[in-house]
Write a structure and sequence with these properties.
With 157 residues, this protein is an alpha+beta fold. It has helices at 9-27, 71-75, 93-116, 129-135; strands at residues 35-40, 49-53, 60-62, 81-88, 120-124, 141-150.
Length: 157
């Protein structure tokens, strides 16, 4: 379970870098990592809003704070940050199928990286159309699933 503590930007970047590295080691030249949109709610150093992680770089492109953004906390879970994994869609269909499988592997890498760095992560398989529409501002993206990332909830005895 996720706690209420803010997520440090350094921790988020470590998780994202590790997931990209995991993807590269296991998928190699078969494909670039999927696009990741970060819904930041409590990440000091990353303004609240929607941001696209620039693949291979420690920076984000801001998409602002769409009005529907708080709905994500109800659809998925309350977390300092939601990593929204998206894949490009379009022809050829076989390539799209491969990208979806690659996105699943990348999501597993995100979850595993978070756990490796002592964080908690939860995966949610439902997509959200508004995320896909927002992602298409730059490229034809389709939101596939979400990884909520935060600190573990304190254990009560």
């Amino acid at each position: 379970m996720l706690g209420k503590d803010p997520l440090d930007l350094k921790d988020l970047m470590d998780v994202l870098r590790e997931a990209e590295s995991f993807h590269g080691r296991h998928w190699g030249r078969q494909g670039e990592p999927p696009q990741v949109l970060i819904a930041s709610f409590d990440v000091p150093g990353l303004p609240g809003g929607l941001h696209q992680k620039v693949p291979g770089a420690d920076q984000f492109e801001s998409y602002g704070a769409p009005l529907w953004l708080p709905e994500l906390l109800e659809r998925y879970t309350k977390a300092p940050c939601l990593a929204l994994v998206c894949v490009g869609h379009g022809p050829p269909v076989a390539s799209y199928r491969s990208r979806v499988v690659g996105a699943g592997a990348f999501g597993y890498g995100l979850w595993l990286a978070a756990r490796t760095f002592g964080l908690e992560a939860s995966a949610y398989g439902r997509s959200y159309n508004e995320v896909s529409w927002e992602g298409q501002r730059q490229a034809p993206l389709r939101h596939q699933f979400c990884i909520a990332i935060g600190h573990p909830r304190a254990q009560s005895i």
